Amino acid sequence: MEETLRLLYQLQKIDSNLDDVEESKGNLPETVKSLEEEVLEIENKLQEKQTYIDTQVASRNKADDDIKEFEEKLKKYKAQQYQVRNNKEYDAITKEIDFAEESVKTLTQQFEDFENQMSQAKKMLEEYQSFLEEKQSILKEKKEELAEISKETEEEETKYKGERDKLIKRINKDTISKYTKIRSARGKAVVAVRKNSCGGCGNRIPPQHIIELRRNDKMYICQHCGRIVVSDEFTKQPTD
Ligand SMILES: [Zn+2]
Protein backbone atom coordinates (compact mmCIF):
# COMPACT_ATOMS: atom_id res chain seq x y z
CA MET A 1 0.00 0.00 0.00
CA GLU A 2 2.81 2.37 0.82
CA GLU A 3 4.10 2.08 -2.72
CA THR A 4 0.64 2.84 -4.15
CA LEU A 5 0.27 5.90 -1.92
CA ARG A 6 3.69 7.10 -2.94
CA LEU A 7 2.89 6.64 -6.63
CA LEU A 8 -0.43 8.45 -6.21
CA TYR A 9 1.33 11.33 -4.52
CA GLN A 10 3.78 11.52 -7.44
CA LEU A 11 0.93 11.31 -9.93
CA GLN A 12 -0.76 14.26 -8.25
CA LYS A 13 2.47 16.23 -8.45
CA ILE A 14 2.76 15.64 -12.19
CA ASP A 15 -0.91 16.46 -12.74
CA SER A 16 -0.52 19.67 -10.75
CA ASN A 17 2.40 20.58 -13.01
CA LEU A 18 0.25 19.89 -16.06
CA ASP A 19 -2.48 22.09 -14.56
CA ASP A 20 0.10 24.87 -14.17
CA VAL A 21 1.14 24.51 -17.81
CA GLU A 22 -2.51 24.70 -18.87
CA GLU A 23 -3.02 27.72 -16.68
CA SER A 24 -0.05 29.51 -18.24
CA LYS A 25 -2.05 29.59 -21.48
CA GLY A 26 -4.49 31.84 -19.65
CA ASN A 27 -7.95 32.16 -21.12
CA LEU A 28 -6.63 32.01 -24.69
CA PRO A 29 -8.03 28.55 -25.45
CA GLU A 30 -11.49 29.72 -24.31
CA THR A 31 -11.18 33.00 -26.19
CA VAL A 32 -10.30 31.19 -29.40
CA LYS A 33 -13.21 28.80 -28.95
CA SER A 34 -15.79 31.52 -28.35
CA LEU A 35 -14.44 33.58 -31.27
CA GLU A 36 -14.79 30.56 -33.53
CA GLU A 37 -18.40 30.21 -32.44
CA GLU A 38 -19.06 33.90 -33.07
CA VAL A 39 -17.55 33.73 -36.55
CA LEU A 40 -19.73 30.73 -37.38
CA GLU A 41 -22.82 32.56 -36.14
CA ILE A 42 -22.08 35.61 -38.31
CA GLU A 43 -21.43 33.37 -41.31
CA ASN A 44 -24.85 31.78 -40.81
CA LYS A 45 -26.52 35.19 -40.60
CA LEU A 46 -24.74 36.24 -43.78
CA GLN A 47 -25.99 33.13 -45.51
CA GLU A 48 -29.56 33.88 -44.37
CA LYS A 49 -29.36 37.47 -45.58
CA GLN A 50 -27.98 36.37 -48.93
CA THR A 51 -30.83 33.90 -49.36
CA TYR A 52 -33.32 36.67 -48.53
CA ILE A 53 -31.69 39.01 -51.06
CA ASP A 54 -31.81 36.31 -53.74
CA THR A 55 -35.54 35.88 -53.12
CA GLN A 56 -36.14 39.62 -53.34
CA VAL A 57 -34.16 39.84 -56.57
CA ALA A 58 -36.15 36.99 -58.07
CA SER A 59 -39.45 38.65 -57.04
CA ARG A 60 -38.29 41.99 -58.40
CA ASN A 61 -37.31 40.45 -61.73
CA LYS A 62 -40.62 38.63 -61.93
CA ALA A 63 -42.47 41.93 -61.34
CA ASP A 64 -40.34 43.54 -64.04
CA ASP A 65 -41.17 40.78 -66.54
CA ASP A 66 -44.87 41.06 -65.72
CA ILE A 67 -44.79 44.83 -66.23
CA LYS A 68 -43.22 44.37 -69.66
CA GLU A 69 -45.83 41.80 -70.56
CA PHE A 70 -48.69 44.12 -69.57
CA GLU A 71 -47.10 46.99 -71.47
CA GLU A 72 -46.92 44.82 -74.59
CA LYS A 73 -50.59 43.98 -74.13
CA LEU A 74 -51.44 47.65 -73.66
CA LYS A 75 -49.78 48.52 -76.95
CA LYS A 76 -51.74 45.80 -78.67
CA TYR A 77 -55.05 46.82 -77.04
CA LYS A 78 -54.55 50.45 -77.94
CA ALA A 79 -53.95 49.52 -81.57
CA GLN A 80 -57.08 47.36 -81.48
CA GLN A 81 -59.08 50.25 -80.02
CA TYR A 82 -58.85 51.99 -83.42
CA GLN A 83 -60.19 48.99 -85.20
CA VAL A 84 -63.33 48.33 -83.16
CA ARG A 85 -66.53 47.97 -85.09
CA ASN A 86 -69.06 48.68 -82.37
CA ASN A 87 -69.54 50.00 -78.84
CA LYS A 88 -69.54 46.53 -77.33
CA GLU A 89 -66.11 45.79 -78.71
CA TYR A 90 -64.92 49.21 -77.65
CA ASP A 91 -66.13 48.68 -74.08
CA ALA A 92 -64.50 45.26 -73.94
CA ILE A 93 -61.14 46.55 -75.09
CA THR A 94 -61.34 49.56 -72.77
CA LYS A 95 -61.92 47.19 -69.87
CA GLU A 96 -58.81 45.23 -70.85
CA ILE A 97 -56.81 48.46 -71.08
CA ASP A 98 -57.98 49.58 -67.62
CA PHE A 99 -57.05 46.23 -66.13
CA ALA A 100 -53.59 46.25 -67.74
CA GLU A 101 -52.92 49.83 -66.62
CA GLU A 102 -54.02 49.00 -63.08
CA SER A 103 -51.78 45.93 -63.09
CA VAL A 104 -48.77 47.92 -64.29
CA LYS A 105 -49.35 50.38 -61.46
CA THR A 106 -49.56 47.67 -58.82
CA LEU A 107 -46.56 45.80 -60.18
CA THR A 108 -44.48 48.98 -60.33
CA GLN A 109 -45.23 49.55 -56.65
CA GLN A 110 -44.24 45.97 -55.88
CA PHE A 111 -41.10 46.33 -57.93
CA GLU A 112 -40.08 49.35 -55.86
CA ASP A 113 -40.88 47.56 -52.59
CA PHE A 114 -38.73 44.57 -53.52
CA GLU A 115 -36.00 46.92 -54.64
CA ASN A 116 -36.07 48.80 -51.31
CA GLN A 117 -36.12 45.64 -49.21
CA MET A 118 -33.26 44.29 -51.23
CA SER A 119 -31.09 47.37 -50.84
CA GLN A 120 -31.76 47.46 -47.09
CA ALA A 121 -30.80 43.82 -46.81
CA LYS A 122 -27.67 44.51 -48.87
CA LYS A 123 -26.66 47.25 -46.46
CA MET A 124 -27.04 44.85 -43.53
CA LEU A 125 -25.14 42.23 -45.45
CA GLU A 126 -22.25 44.65 -45.85
CA GLU A 127 -22.33 45.42 -42.12
CA TYR A 128 -22.25 41.73 -41.30
CA GLN A 129 -19.41 41.28 -43.73
CA SER A 130 -17.22 43.93 -42.15
CA PHE A 131 -18.13 42.61 -38.69
CA LEU A 132 -17.13 39.14 -39.85
CA GLU A 133 -13.80 40.37 -41.22
CA GLU A 134 -13.09 42.12 -37.93
CA LYS A 135 -13.84 39.00 -35.89
CA GLN A 136 -11.85 36.82 -38.26
CA SER A 137 -8.79 38.97 -37.91
CA ILE A 138 -9.02 38.92 -34.09
CA LEU A 139 -9.47 35.15 -34.22
CA LYS A 140 -6.40 34.80 -36.42
CA GLU A 141 -4.37 36.90 -34.00
CA LYS A 142 -5.51 34.92 -30.94
CA LYS A 143 -4.90 31.62 -32.70
CA GLU A 144 -1.36 32.66 -33.49
CA GLU A 145 -0.79 33.72 -29.88
CA LEU A 146 -2.11 30.39 -28.66
CA ALA A 147 0.07 28.50 -31.13
CA GLU A 148 3.08 30.45 -29.92
CA ILE A 149 2.39 29.67 -26.25
CA SER A 150 1.55 26.06 -27.05
CA LYS A 151 4.90 25.73 -28.80
CA GLU A 152 6.64 27.02 -25.69
CA THR A 153 4.78 24.75 -23.31
CA GLU A 154 4.80 21.73 -25.59
CA GLU A 155 8.16 20.52 -24.35
CA GLU A 156 7.08 20.67 -20.71
CA GLU A 157 3.76 19.06 -21.51
CA THR A 158 5.41 16.21 -23.38
CA LYS A 159 7.81 15.62 -20.50
CA TYR A 160 5.06 15.50 -17.86
CA LYS A 161 2.78 13.38 -20.00
CA GLY A 162 5.57 10.89 -20.55
CA GLU A 163 6.20 10.67 -16.82
CA ARG A 164 2.49 10.31 -16.22
CA ASP A 165 2.13 7.43 -18.68
CA LYS A 166 4.97 5.54 -17.01
CA LEU A 167 3.57 6.13 -13.55
CA ILE A 168 0.03 5.12 -14.40
CA LYS A 169 1.19 1.68 -15.55
CA ARG A 170 2.43 1.02 -12.01
CA ILE A 171 -0.90 1.80 -10.33
CA ASN A 172 -3.90 -0.52 -10.56
CA LYS A 173 -6.90 0.55 -12.61
CA ASP A 174 -9.40 0.79 -9.72
CA THR A 175 -7.10 3.11 -7.82
CA ILE A 176 -6.62 5.26 -10.91
CA SER A 177 -10.34 5.52 -11.50
CA LYS A 178 -10.85 6.50 -7.85
CA TYR A 179 -8.11 9.11 -8.21
CA THR A 180 -9.62 10.47 -11.44
CA LYS A 181 -13.05 10.72 -9.85
CA ILE A 182 -11.79 12.73 -6.86
CA ARG A 183 -9.63 14.86 -9.13
CA SER A 184 -12.47 15.84 -11.42
CA ALA A 185 -14.60 16.78 -8.41
CA ARG A 186 -11.91 18.44 -6.32
CA GLY A 187 -9.15 19.49 -8.70
CA LYS A 188 -6.55 17.96 -6.45
CA ALA A 189 -7.04 14.33 -5.44
CA VAL A 190 -4.02 13.61 -3.25
CA VAL A 191 -2.88 15.89 -0.45
CA ALA A 192 -0.46 15.49 2.42
CA VAL A 193 -1.21 16.10 6.08
CA ARG A 194 -0.37 19.66 7.04
CA LYS A 195 -0.26 20.69 10.70
CA ASN A 196 -2.40 17.69 11.63
CA SER A 197 -5.03 18.79 9.14
CA CYS A 198 -6.09 17.82 5.66
CA GLY A 199 -3.82 19.60 3.17
CA GLY A 200 -6.79 20.02 0.88
CA CYS A 201 -9.63 21.43 2.96
CA GLY A 202 -7.78 22.31 6.17
CA ASN A 203 -10.06 20.33 8.44
CA ARG A 204 -8.45 18.72 11.46
CA ILE A 205 -7.61 15.05 11.33
CA PRO A 206 -8.10 13.21 14.64
CA PRO A 207 -4.75 12.19 16.27
CA GLN A 208 -5.69 8.52 16.08
CA HIS A 209 -6.09 8.84 12.31
CA ILE A 210 -2.79 10.65 11.98
CA ILE A 211 -1.07 7.69 13.63
CA GLU A 212 -2.88 5.24 11.37
CA LEU A 213 -2.14 7.34 8.37
CA ARG A 214 1.58 7.38 9.07
CA ARG A 215 1.64 3.58 8.91
CA ASN A 216 0.90 3.92 5.19
CA ASP A 217 -0.95 0.64 5.18
CA LYS A 218 -4.30 1.87 3.95
CA MET A 219 -5.77 4.68 1.95
CA TYR A 220 -7.06 7.46 4.18
CA ILE A 221 -9.90 9.55 2.75
CA CYS A 222 -10.62 12.95 4.31
CA GLN A 223 -14.08 12.83 5.87
CA HIS A 224 -14.74 16.42 4.88
CA CYS A 225 -13.52 16.81 1.32
CA GLY A 226 -13.14 13.22 0.14
CA ARG A 227 -9.51 13.65 -0.94
CA ILE A 228 -6.85 11.02 -0.41
CA VAL A 229 -4.66 12.20 2.46
CA VAL A 230 -1.11 10.86 2.72
CA SER A 231 1.53 11.20 5.39
CA ASP A 232 3.46 14.46 5.53
CA GLU A 233 6.66 12.39 5.28
CA PHE A 234 5.95 12.06 1.56
CA THR A 235 6.52 15.75 1.04
CA LYS A 236 10.02 15.51 2.47
CA GLN A 237 11.18 12.65 0.29
CA PRO A 238 12.41 13.21 -3.22
CA THR A 239 9.80 11.98 -5.63
CA ASP A 240 12.01 11.65 -8.65
ZN1 LIG B 1 -10.02 17.39 3.45
Can you walk me through this structure?
The protein is mostly helical. 77% of the residues lie in helices and 5% in strands. The chain contains six helices and four strands. It has helices at 2-24, 28-81, 87-168, 173-186, 207-214, 233-236; strands at 190-194, 197-198, 220-221, 228-230. α2 packs antiparallel against α3 (87-168). The two termini are 19 Å apart. The site of zinc ion has 8 residues, from loops.
Helix content: over 70%
**Count of individual helical segments:** 6
Report the uncertain regions: none
The ligands bound in this entry are:
zinc ion
Total strand count, please?
4
Radius of gyration: 39 Å
Distance between the termini: 19 Å
What structural class do you assign from the helix and strand content? mainly alpha
Main sheet: strand order: 2-1-4-3
Query: Largest sheet, described in full?
Result: 4 strands, mixed
Mean pLDDT: 94
Secondary-structure element order, N to C: HHHHEEHEEH
Strand content: 5-15%
Shape: rod-shaped
Describe the protein's topology:
Blueprint: H1 2-24, H2 28-81, H3 87-168, H4 173-186, E1 190-194, E2 197-198, H5 207-214, E3 220-221, E4 228-230, H6 233-236
Parallel strand pairs: 1-4
Antiparallel strand pairs: 1-2, 3-4
Helix pairs in contact: 1-3, 2-3
The structure holds zinc ion (ZN).
